[in-house]
Design brief:
Length: 198
């Protein structure tokens, strides 16, 4: 665990604003592993949908006020990714986090609510809007999809790819950070080059 917080840009959302901190009523070890599952969900679905993953990591530190804090980050590049698959990749982190709670016997309504990652949803909404796709937060816009529909797509993939997500999460929890190529080697998935070929 770090003794200092990561840089402000690591803690910021895609707009540059600080992501909100949510209390996760778990031990440090349980919360850290949960965050590893969150990031593994993003990383694995990114690879499955043809996105280049640079790295994926779990970041823990001691705040000045004491105790601990944990977050994560997955760095990727998307080229010619289907809009709805991109959105599903954004949803996969939160869903993998909740699935971790269920599989490990830790699920409660309070803990599931603490897994909410609105910044991931907002990234999907804003990115798709820039490309002419309509993603509704709480409704189905004309010609588009709702976040609930995207979460359904992601849920099916997270369930189907649970073995790969679990493998990546456990390795990330041990090593803090994995490169995209390491994730590909662990899972048997392809980490495409920036040119699009494997």
């Amino acid at each position: 665990m770090r003794t200092t917080a990561p840089s402000p840009e690591v803690l910021a959302d895609h707009t540059g604003k600080q992501r909100p901190f949510l209390h996760m009523p778990l031990s440090y070890e349980q919360a850290r592993l949960g965050m590893a599952f969150h990031e593994a969900g993003h990383a694995v679905l990114s690879l499955v949908y043809g996105m280049r993953v640079f790295n994926s990591e779990v970041i823990a530190w001691e705040p000045p006020t004491g105790g601990w804090a944990v977050t994560g980050n997955t760095a990727w590049h998307s080229r010619d990714t289907d809009a709805w698959q991109f959105a599903a990749q954004c949803a996969a982190g939160e869903l993998a986090h909740v699935q971790y709670l269920m599989v490990y016997g830790l699920w409660t309504p309070e803990r599931a609510a603490a897994c909410e990652a609105d910044h991931d949803r907002e990234l999907a909404v804003d990115t798709l809007a820039r490309h002419g796709f309509r993603l509704g937060r709480h409704h189905v816009p004309e010609g588009g999809k709702s976040w609930g529909m995207v979460r359904g797509m992601a849920r099916r993939k997270v369930t189907h790819l649970w073995r790969e997500i679990r493998t990546v999460a456990l390795a990330m929890n041990e090593r803090d950070i994995l490169t995209g190529d390491e994730i590909a080697a662990l899972t048997g998935l392809v980490n495409p080059t920036l040119g699009g070929a494997a």
